[in-house]
Amino acid sequence: MAVSAAWVFGSLVPAGAGFSGEMEELGLNHAVKPSSEPLRAPARRVEVTGSAELRSPPDRAALIVSVTSSKNSVNDAANSVTRRLEYILQTLRQHAVKEEDTVVTKHIQREEDLYCVQAEVSVVFSDFEKMQNVRSVLIEKLDRSVYIGDPQFSHSEECLSLLRRRVCVAAVETARLKATEVCNVLGQALGRPLLVREEDFQEWTCGQQRGAANPLTLQQKVGQMTVCASSRVFVTFELRPKDSTRKKL
Q1: 140: Cβ–Cβ under 8 A, 6 or more apart, which residues?
Q2: What is the pTM of this model?
Q3: pLDDT tens digits, the chain, 249 residues: what are they?
Q4: Cβ(68)–Cβ(117) under 8 Å?
Q5: What is the DSSP-derived secondary structure letter of residue 36?
Q6: Which of 44, 48, 108, 155 lies at 20 to 30 Å from 33 by C-alpha?
Q7: Spatial CA neighbour of 77 closest among 121, 114, 122
Q8: Name one GO cellular component term (predicted).
Q9: Separation of alpha carbons 230 and 52, rounded Å
Q10: CA-to-CA distance for 93 and 134, rounded, in angstroms?
């Protein structure tokens, strides 16, 4: 049986160089080259918490005035209500109350042989002194057939939104002051903020509730509807040496 000839080619290379050289030629040598940039040291930080609590009195007061008349004739009842309604609206105009802050509703119903006509005026005030003046005039000039309710105080969405922003900012300021004092004790300088996170927020009516033995004054009614808000934040600041100088551009 014939045996086929085989040729073997080889070469001598320095120890440890052959395989690496072949890998480089084939583009398979992926050894990581040392970086020329120096490794950065981890940033020094100071982490603190801050809290704040603020109050906000109501900024809106709603006043309800209703006029009722019951008569045998629906026209007589309507005319009676219209006269007093016109006086109420005239009083509001004299005190520069905007039309968009006033809502008038009317309805008629029958009670046995009488026609009952009622008109209700709902007014929203942002000026509490003006509200008191209007209410005093109506109580003085109109008879008992006109019902003039007690003002109902509340907060607008804008007022509550402002309170929530202010209390959060106040908590962050408290955290910054605390971090500054810590840096002074350590002989360091406070750097830029790295993280700000609000961890807790609460909102509640904090007015003191009083008994109904004595009529409440206007200020007491406003105080009962005061809203409180609290915020707690977590803030991380960069910590810098005091003798460090800023790099020149």
Answers
A1: none
A2: 0.72
A3: 443 333 333 333 444 444 445 444 444 444 445 555 555 555 789 999 999 999 999 999 999 999 999 999 999 999 999 999 999 999 999 999 999 999 999 999 988 889 999 999 999 999 999 999 999 999 999 988 899 999 999 999 999 999 999 999 999 999 999 999 999 999 999 999 999 999 999 999 987 665 556 788 888 888 899 999 999 999 999 999 987 545 444
A4: yes
A5: S
A6: 44
A7: 114
A8: nucleus
A9: 6
A10: 10
Strand pairing class (114-125; 60-71): antiparallel
Cα–Cα distance measured from residue 21 to residue 15, given in angstroms and rounded to the nearest whole number: 11
Radius of gyration of the chain (CA): 40
Distance of CA 63 to the CA centre of its chain: 27
The CA distances from residue 65 to 32, 40, 77, 90, 156, in Å, are 85, 73, 17, 13, 21
3-state secondary structure 96-145: CCCHHHEEEEEEEEEECCEEEEEEEEEEEECCHHHHHHHHHHHHHHCCCC
Q: Give residue for tokens 């007690």.
A: 150
Q: Which residues pair with 114 in a beta bridge?
A: 111
Which residues have C-beta within 8 Å of that of residue 78, sequence separation ≥ 6? 69, 108, 117
